[in-house]
Amino acid sequence: MQNSESLFLHNRNPQLHLSDDIEVVVGYLRINGEAIPNEPVDKISFYLGFLASRDYVNDGILTGDQGSINRQIDSHIINASDMPEKRFIELQNFLAQEWESNDSQAILEMRHQITEVVQSDQRTGLSRWAEHLGDSDNNYPDWFKYYTWSSLVKLGMFDNKKQKFQKRSRGTTAVYPELNQDVLAYLYDILDRTYIKGELMNEVDDEELQRLLKSGNFGKLYTYAFSKAGPYSPETREVTQGSWIRFNQTEDPSTAQRLAGLLQGYDTGWCTAGEGTASVYLRGGDLYVYFTGNKDSNDTIPRIAIRMEQNQVAEARGINAAQELEPEMIDIVIKQLTALPGGDSYFQKIENQKN
Q1: What are the extents of the domains in the chain?
Q2: DSSP characters for 16-60?
Q3: How many other C-beta atoms are found inside a 10 Å radius of the C-beta of residue 182?
Q4: What is the pTM assigned to this prediction?
Q5: What tens digit of pLDDT does each residue of 75-101 get?
């Protein structure tokens, strides 16, 4: 790892070289004969090399070792004891009627199921990141893998209204940020050209990007990259022609997997982007998703979701802040609702979003 790469990590976190992890590793290497200067960038360089060494740590995010990857993912999954009560309440109606029962065993079983859903969605999300970072075809260097992973595990859901990621705590039940491969590649290119090759900083005429590059904050930079390289460009939003896909009510996990897979990477904010939660909702009723065309005119970009419950429309969501519908999508969703049981009860709510 070159000093320019270590310098980026140091500038992002000036206290990184003083962390317990790095101090322990540097001390160990010095005892074993390594001559490590006390400069921050040198300590960081040796630390990353230690993590990536198959003879020492064999850190799976850097080396691809699956056993290490599994352990790291597990360490960032919410514990059952940290699950907040409100999350149980949110999902209770979709799992079983036994919630209202006085049978303590039935209640414990339901809580166990809900915990497994939340843990499964978090695990699946992190696995996607780990797999992508370790894919040799992407050829991401160790410093970028470390930067991405160490930042990612601290982030919660994306707040569309505030346009930033929430902070993650021990009791966070939200899934991890969704991976968009094009966006991550765009972000890597910006950082590589700016900090490693030294080509870009003086050429950047975007004041917001200049400020973000100086801070090195992954969440903010990823948000910026999503706005530039993500699927919801102003041009894309102008496209309203598309198609509906109906996901039938089922307990078959393959349908939930397909639904979540089609939503991944778009940061819609919809819970159904997680396979476990998608499976829960599909047990309660059908789901309809409206997709519009991408740059290749394929209908892959999710814009509207309608959820059914007990054969009645339960909710309609869009991709604007607070999952509100885009104004240009109003007529499309109303037309679809007219064909669905209980859809008329949503008309007034949607009309209010027009104003």
Answers
A1: 1-57, 239-354
A2: GGGSHHHHHHHHHHHHTT----SSHHHHHHHHHHHHH-TTTT--H
A3: 13
A4: 0.88
A5: 999 999 998 887 777 666 555 544 455
